[in-house]
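About this split. The held-out portion is used to measure sequence recovery: a designer receives only the structure tokens and must propose an amino acid at every position. Recovery is the fraction of positions where the proposal matches the reference. Here is one held-out target exactly as it appears in the evaluation file.
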């Protein structure tokens, strides 16, 4: 019986190609329809018209690297692209996130045969490939940056109207993201002014070891100062603090950052739910919450709690989400004051912070 998800593997290592082909073909729902050793060969394969549902691609390859190949594919024959890379090389990580900016929908760690975490990486590879095969990427990335889709307030999603939310001086902004999150974070942060007066706290679900590369990339491509969060730091306006690997991020009384090794929540540490619950407890109406693309429902119920306490909350819309699981759950719960496309979220943050500052001065 013919298997459903067709995959093109692109990697210059014959050993890695062989391993990836074996792993993908071991899943009865997948079929590798091609395996090539560089980006130029990948473009030639796509020119034959034998289109895969997913491209699984390395970064550093001869003739044409992963970034340039991603850019050309997304401009000419869009298909979901997963970057499959090792994480030890900072240069490779930088190109990985540039590739996501160009349109790749996810990144995964290469499974290493006989490695201690081989099974976890294998499962993540198969799950991500399965999920990304359903992503609709046609013109998605150009729309994300250039178009102006209609916005919606919560009166269209079953919750109280956004116009009835009271303005408060905002002390912290919490943002949660998972699958597809890094390019959306870059879109939001790059549109905020360097002197944005409120600190931003971020939980991004990402593979172990990828976080430093993401932080470096955001520092290079946005005007804000982006850090891996440190315990006890007093967060400042114009700065972004990202939860480190395997630590929950929250705030303490008075607003300092608090990192904990409390148990994972729904298997996640850091968890968006922990960050949003902490903001609700400490800041109540004086914070904002933003829930972005990602599978599952991490943070949805806690975003509702923030809204119930008077905080302004935003969920990313379906159109610009790679996976609409987390923001979709929040919308279903009535947790979102606004439902917005990715390229309108920064404007909403600026506007609400300005309203709160004005209200605080009167």
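Reference sequence for scoring:
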């Amino acid at each position: 019986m013919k298997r459903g998800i067709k995959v093109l593997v692109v990697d210059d290592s014959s050993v890695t190609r062989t391993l990836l082909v074996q792993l993908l073909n071991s899943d009865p729902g997948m079929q590798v329809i091609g395996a090539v050793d560089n980006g130029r060969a990948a473009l030639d394969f796509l020119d034959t018209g034998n289109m895969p549902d997913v491209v699984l691609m390395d970064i550093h390859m001869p003739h044409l690297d992963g970034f340039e190949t991603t850019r050309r594919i997304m401009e000419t024959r869009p298909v979901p692209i997963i970057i499959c890379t090792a994480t030890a090389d900072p240069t490779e990580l930088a190109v990985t996130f540039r590739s996501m900016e160009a349109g790749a929908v996810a990144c995964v760690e290469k499974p290493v045969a006989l490695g201690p975490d081989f099974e976890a990486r294998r499962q993540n590879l198969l799950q991500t490939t399965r999920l990304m095969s359903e992503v609709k990427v046609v013109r998605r990335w150009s729309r994300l940056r250039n178009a102006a889709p209609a916005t919606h307030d919560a009166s269209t999603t079953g919750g109280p109207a956004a116009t009835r939310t009271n303005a408060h001086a905002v002390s912290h902004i919490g943002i949660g993201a998972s699958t597809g999150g890094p390019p959306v974070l870059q879109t939001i942060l790059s549109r905020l002014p360097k002197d944005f007066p409120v600190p931003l706290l971020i939980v991004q679900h990402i593979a172990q070891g990828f976080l430093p590369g993401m932080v470096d990339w955001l520092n290079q491509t946005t005007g804000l100062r982006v850090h891996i969060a440190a315990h006890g730091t007093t967060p400042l306006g114009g700065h972004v603090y990202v939860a480190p690997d395997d630590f929950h991020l929250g705030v303490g009384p008075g607003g300092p950052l608090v990192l904990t090794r409390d148990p994972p929540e729904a298997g996640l540490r850091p968890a968006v739910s922990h960050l949003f619950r902490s903001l609700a407890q400490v800041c109540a109406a004086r914070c904002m919450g933003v829930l972005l693309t990602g599978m599952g429902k991490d943070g949805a119920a806690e975003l509702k709690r923030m809204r119930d306490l008077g905080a302004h909350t935003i969920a990313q819309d379906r159109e610009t989400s790679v996976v609409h699981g987390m923001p979709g759950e929040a919308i279903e719960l009535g947790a979102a004051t606004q439902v917005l496309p990715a390229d309108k979220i920064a404007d909403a943050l600026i506007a609400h912070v300005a309203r709160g500052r004005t209200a605080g001065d009167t």
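Annotator remark: The longest helix spans residues 342-361.
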